[in-house]
Each structure stands twice: as C-alpha cells, then as structure tokens.
Amino acid sequence: MRRLSHLLTSALVLAVATAGILAAQQTKIYWGDEVPSGWAGKWSPDLLTVPERTDFTRTMSTLQLHEWIAALKLKTENLHVIQMFTSPLRKVAPAMVLSNPRVTSPQQARSSGKPVVFLMGNIHPPEAEAAEALLMVARDLAAGKHKAILDNLTVMIAPVFNVDGTDTFVTQNGGLGSETPHILGVRENSEGLDLNREGVKLVSVEANGLYRTLNQWDPILFLDGHLMSRVSHGYANTYGTTTVPAAAPGPRTYMEETLFPAVRDAVRSNFGLEVFTHSLATPNTWPPRAWSHDRAAWTVEAKFVVNDFGLRNRFAIITETPGQPTFERRIYAQYAYFIALLQYTSAHAAEMQAVVKKADDDTVAAVLAGAEAGTLTNFLDGEYQSAGKIELLAYRTNEAQYKPGTSLMSTKPGTASGPPEVVPDVDDLTKPVGTRSATVPRYYLLPPDLADIADKLRAHNIRVTTLDKAVRMEGEQFTIDRMYPTRRSGYDMTTLDGTFSPLITKEFPAGSFQVDMAQPMANAAFYYLEPQARDGFVGWGVMDDVLKALGAGERSAVYPVFKGRRIAP
Ligand SMILES: [Zn+2]
Fold this sequence. Notes:
With about 575 residues, the protein is of the alpha+beta class. It is built from 14 helices and 27 strands. Residues about 1-20 have low confidence and may be disordered.
C-alpha cells in the first residue's frame, strides 16, 4: 500500500513537472536587458513617468512625484493620498491609498473587511526601480488594466520613502552596475542615516513616520523594493521574507511554501522572467556551491525594516533586482513581481488574513499557556542552515567595463548575457534557525524613569500601560557583568554579558511601565527588550545612556527591565 501510494505520487510529480516544462516552452523568457516591447501600455502624457519621458535615463524627484500623483488623482475616484511625515529638509512623503470604493481612513479600511497591502520604494534612493515601478502599478490599479485587484484589497503605495536622499541627486559612477539612470539620489537621509537599519532603533523622523502609518493602517503585507550591485546569478528579480528567528513562524512558512512558489510561477508565465530567492552565490569561483542569504547581506537581524515587520505576525517581502541590467529592465522586473504578488494576494485575501489572525492568536495563546510557568522560550539569535539542494541559474563571468572615454558602466559583451547555465546541487543556505534562546516572561516591567523606552515600544505598536499603583512582581532579574562595544556589519553595537537570577520578588512603584505579553506584538517586545538579543534595544545602543548611568561597563549592574512571571502574593 505504502509502495503503491509512493508510485502514484511519483506519477503525479512527473505529470506536474511535464506540465511545467510545457508551460516553460510556451513562455518566452527574457534574459539580460531584454523586455517585451510596449510592456508598460499606452498613457496620456501627464501619466507618463519620468523614466518613460526620458527613454529610461532619469528617475523622479519628489516634486515630480507629487505632480504625478496630482495628475493621477484627476483620473480616478479610487485614490486618496496621505502624508506619512515631513522630512528634516521639510519635504513631504506621500502614500497613495488605492481602494474601490474609496477609503480615506484606517477605520474605513478596517470596516471594508479587505486587507491592506503596503508597497514601498526608495528607502535607498540609488535603487530607484521599485519606486518607478510602483507608479506604474498605481496607474494600472487606478486607471488601467489591473483595477480588479482593488475588488479584494486596499493597496497603499509609498513610492519614495527617503525623500531627502531622493532629492540629493549625484552623478552616478557605475558602482551599482549599470549606467542608467545617469543621475541618482543618495542612499542615506539628510542626517546620514541608512533608513534600512532603523528597524529596531527608530531614531529618524522618516522611520517614525512610516511606523506611525503602519500602526494605523495595519497592512497584512509590507513590501520594500531594492537593487543589488552587479551579480552573477541569472534572475531578473529576487525576493525574501523575515528571517528573524523570534518571529511567528506561520506567515513565513506560508510565504516560503505557498506564496513565493505561486508568484514565481506567475512571474514566469505572465511576464517571461525568472525570479528566485534574495541571495548570492558562493564561492566566487565556478561552479557555485551555495546560495546564501548571508552573502547578500540579508542577515537574521531585525535592523532591516522588512525583517522587523515580520515580528508583527504579518507578511513581509524584500525584492532586489540585479544591478547590471538597464534601468528599464530593472523597472520591468520590479513591476512584474509587484503585479503578480498583488494578483496572488487579491485572489487569496481571506486565506492570508486567516494566516495572520492565527499568528496573532497563537502568539497570545502561547504566552497565556507558558509564560507564568517559565516554560515558554523564544529565540535571541539565529543562523542560516541548508534548506536542501537547488538548481541555480548562474553566469560563469560577469565583467563590467567603462564605455570608452566615459565614466559610464556597462557589461563586457559575452559575459552575463543570454540564457544562464543551470548549476545542479547547490546548497540552499536560506533557512533561518534559532541558536540562542531565553524564557518569555508574562510581563516586562520598566521603572518610571524609562519613559523614553516605553515610548519607543509604543512607536513599535507594542501596548504599554502605566501602573496606577505599586505592584510586587515575582520574576527574573538580569545582572550585567560586562558591557562592551562590538563592531558588526559596519555598526557599533552594544553587547552585555551576565546572568539571570532565580525567581525573586521586586516592587515597582506607581508610574512604572508594564508590557503585558498576552498581546500579538509579544515576539517584538521580547526581541527588543531581552538584554542579550542579537540586535534588540541593547544591541542598537538605545539603552546605552540608561545602562551607563547604572554603572554598567564599570561594575556589575542590574538590567533595569524586569521579567515578571506573576504578581506576588
Ligand atoms: Zn537597498
């Protein structure tokens, strides 16, 4: 019986594989710089994007973005625009809310019953293809061929997040791999901050404005679009999701097993592009042996906004196009992925809402079941292990060259062009696995003088209450033996050595702050507040001043955030 079912399964697999090959044979696949002719459709001059008006040699400024949105507004009833924040250089970051019928507030979006999806570009302005593709997506949803997506979704689109970096145009030097667009924004905001390292510390105006918007509108899916530099893989676009091991597993599993494969197939059959996981091949010699998230700088840390968003029990996606194709090709690759993703999400809206709700419910239930007894744990850190062997599309060589007498970069003919080779037996190093863990408390308690930390938790959408009378709490206290700086990925991080006490009882006066962990944001609260999380509040220096004032770094000191199990009798 067992053998028979195995044979039947094999026959089914063979049939599916054959169908896949036939489908692939029917679909023309575009490699290198190729795009289908007329792929963006025909539009009136006021709805053309800056790249379309400049033969794909320029990208938009924020002023051009505002003008373009104003033009689109005149063509549709289904567009509302919100302002996420005003930047340090006094520029407004808009987000379009596309819905049918139109909604103009988070309350209306919620009562419509349709999930909200949030797509964002230009967190890194030199990586402008997602931003430009998002305008084309907005155009299709509001006045074009993809209006039907709004039957089931509210789509929020913030094409330009780093508005100040976007408007700081510089002549590009080819460092990202391609010669177009000829001038680009800069990566950092006007204060020199990389906004995609703000996921935990939230110090910039921009990140706080974004998080305020996310807290209010509660999207079930958040996408952030990027560009890699010159690469040797054969994919037009790559995608990844949250890999912070402390995040609820449900949404991540759904994406890896269900959503990503389906969207990948749709991008292939509907747009003629091959896309795959956001990774890079290693080593740098032929043939590659591994396909590694780490190599692509996609660590398991929450500093990336997409990784951090996964701590909310929601779907989070990063897309990264390779750097060497033309600007038009890169925009097409982002556009194709966005449309295929929105079509999938629209068709599976109820199913995806159920996954998110279950992750919320499970998070609360686990705290109620195990936190008081001290049996619930979660991960402080992790690493990537093998998810199995894969076939990889890759090029043996990919060489850059300057156009003679210029600083314009292009690809040396005969390298990284045309169909790539299929490399078998490549180790897929993309499976995040927790390595260190700690108990999850029933409550975190913060003394009254940590009001700034309480505010930062609230900025992350974590529910924090203020005690109106003193509470005696039984729980664990962490003693810091050593506090020292660690340099990691270009950042000065803080590390604490120390130990947790056995259960003790401690009194917290009125005015102290309490985080009841029976809330959907428990995984995030745990990761930010645990003294030894890989990149929580301690890691990012958010607690440095508080800890130094307590003498940490010079002598043994008590970590001021207490892990309460139960109210003492
Ligand atoms: Zn980037």
